[in-house]
Amino acid sequence: MAYDIDMIKKVYTQMAERVEKAREVVGKPLTLSEKILYTHLWDVEAEKAYERGKDYVNFSPDRIACQDATAQMALLQFMQAGKPKVEVPTTVHCDHLIQAKQGAAKDLKRANETSNEVFDFLGSVSNKYGIGFWKPGAGIIHQVVLENYAFPGGMMIGTDSHTVNAGGLGMVAVGVGGADAVDVMAGMPWELKFPKLIGVKLTGKLNGWTAAKDVILKVAGILTVKGGTGAIIEYFGEGARSMSCTGKGTICNMGAEVGATTSTFGYDDSMERFLRATDRNDVADAANNVREHLTGDDEVYANPEQFFDEVIEINLSELRPHLNGPFTPDLATPISEMKEKAKKNDWPIKVDWGLIGSCTNSSYEDLTRAASIAQQALDKKLKPKSDFGINPGSEQIRFTAKRDGLLKIFEDLDATVFTNACGPCIGQWDRSDRKGEEKNTIVHSFNRNFSKRADGNPNTHAFVGSPEMVAAIAISGRLDFDPTRDKLMNEDGEEVMLDEPKGIELPTNGFEVEDAGYVAPYEDGSGVTIKVAEDSERLELLTPFEPWNGDNLLGAKLLIKAHGKCTTDHISMAGPWLRYRGHLDNISNNCLIGAVNAFNMKTNFVKSQLTGEYGGVPDTQREYKAKDIPTVVVGDHNYGEGSSREHAAMEPRHLGVKVVIVKSFARIHETNLKKQGMLGVTFDNESDYDLIQEDDTFNFIDLENFAEGKQLTVEIVHADGTKDVIKTNHTYNSNQIEWYKEGSALNLIKKLNA
What we know:
Layout: H1 5-26, H2 32-38, E1 56-59, E2 63-67, H3 68-78, E3 90-93, H4 104-114, H5 116-129, E4 132-134, H6 141-148, E5 155-158, E6 172-175, H7 178-185, E7 190-193, E8 196-203, H8 212-223, E9 231-236, H9 238-241, H10 245-253, E10 262-265, H11 269-277, H12 281-289, H13 298-302, E11 310-315, E12 322-324, E13 332-334, H14 338-345, E14 351-357, H15 364-379, E15 387-391, H16 395-403, H17 406-412, E16 416-417, E17 440-444, E18 460-464, H18 467-476, E19 488-489, E20 495-496, E21 518-519, E22 553-561, H19 568-571, H20 584-587, E23 606-607, E24 614-615, H21 617-626, E25 631-635, H22 647-655, E26 657-662, H23 667-675, E27 679-683, E28 697-700, E29 712-717, E30 723-729, H24 734-742, H25 745-753
Parallel strand pairs: 2-3, 2-5, 3-4, 5-6, 8-9, 8-11, 9-10, 14-15, 14-17, 15-16, 17-18, 22-25, 25-26, 26-27
Antiparallel strand pairs: 1-7, 4-21, 12-13, 19-20, 22-28, 23-24, 27-30, 28-29, 29-30
């Protein structure tokens, strides 16, 4: 039986009436996305048609999921909210703090020893506040959610950008910062700008080497890393219905890489099969009763141009395998064109590692398709030229895959099977074969391939592909290998070709697991005492941020003008820094150390206007803070792209940065800045970015009149005494301006609960 089945049945019981009311107020047939949005309004019934991309709307999500790295800060904030228990079903999943090094058993043992303080903290907070706890080794949060909690037509939020994975089971699932999650945990509405809608019509059927992953790799190439910002991507058509549920999850998962609010598919037979295979017959039966409301209306899909803001059509029968990268997930290359493109761009051809797994591609079907290629290497006497690493998605998948002999196939190729955790995908990888910054290539089935992300090396060229394509390329050892037409030389000196991959959607003998890793919370957690040692390096109780004094902000100094791509990885690196995610002051020592200074094209090397000397960004900022001097960060397009980690907003706030001015923001990061009481604005004229000089001082001369829809004027004073006066835009509504005034959204919650 499913978790929280009564909640799910309640959603379905109310759905027909709410959908009909939404159709009435909107005045036309509805997309699936609109049905879910309008049936999860905080005010229960739809009373008006919301304008896409403009209206802020309050929603009532059904559940929350948190991974261990972001859960620390989220729960530290919730502890200040004055609530005895979470108001909606919530889970914590320990998947980020396990480093991949020697293999599953040793790596998990080491993680439990080195991070026991954090795991104990998360476990005790979960017990106290009624939160379900998935212990280390249980699996990657999004795969565990798909197998246990996701349900068609539901709405969930999660403190990880790839929460969107649950769209593969027909949800509107959105990645948020911890402060957003705290709002919902505390029984408050969740605010979101009503999304625009992008429709992707899938025709035909996947065949041969082409996988579900190739759909989103193609879409990423079309939309780019910011083309989906502020939008839900809704997939439909015969091609969508022909794919497996976990394949749909893969597509939705990587929708985060185009900036989409989320992605989703309508309920169909593949979702029903998956629900029943994962012991959720009760959910499948309940969903079947409201099946017509769990997908878009027929008129929508018949004439999508009339109902979506943008429509993309992809013929799956003609789609070919892709590799995306390096350094950005939207640089899409059909595998047939890689030979020419790699040579032109001087990408290293030799492939050192093939990594299979992550929240994007770690399902049973993924493992079977990759294993079918690995088995051919054994049968055809092909010795892999690259190292292999495998991360199963959950303990249920690992146990079942081991039972069915899949893991042994990889082990026979000398692959390392890592823990059921994120591992190399998030930089939790102690890569033994390289310790310097040599130029090299890896291929993986992950979602992101930003510089330094997997192994900390800025010269590692990472390429994203399907698990079966990763397996084939790792066996060949060459980036330019095209398994659809290229031959390989085996150990007997014979030329052989790899056959097309074969996959099994769901295990023939069903899923099996001895200990899934779930720990239910106490019925009454009031007696649980949460302890945080004063001298802890890993955890630190939070001190509320100071409210705004109501005055104009004058005399602010430039901290850094970031050049080009500045993701949350650049602002708050993961990898070894994950150990400090629960200690705001310690982790602030990585603040913006990956951002490229536009004035010298170096990282972590900025000029102090106090001394004229150059130093690290955090050290320089701490000097400004010590003298109570406000500072400004300037950035380029899509600033804050990537992870949902709110540390990228909390660290500058903690260190005394007052304002971030950029050409454009990534959605989650902009919200995180607002939640933490930061001022985030965009250049009205993007070319004003070029006016910013290294020794500039900023005066926000009309901030005291901060109001919804009103531009803010900034006076930029240069070192030679000349000035430029520019206009900046913002998206703060009246409620968000109150967050700013109070110093943070959490401060406002505490004030309301006092």
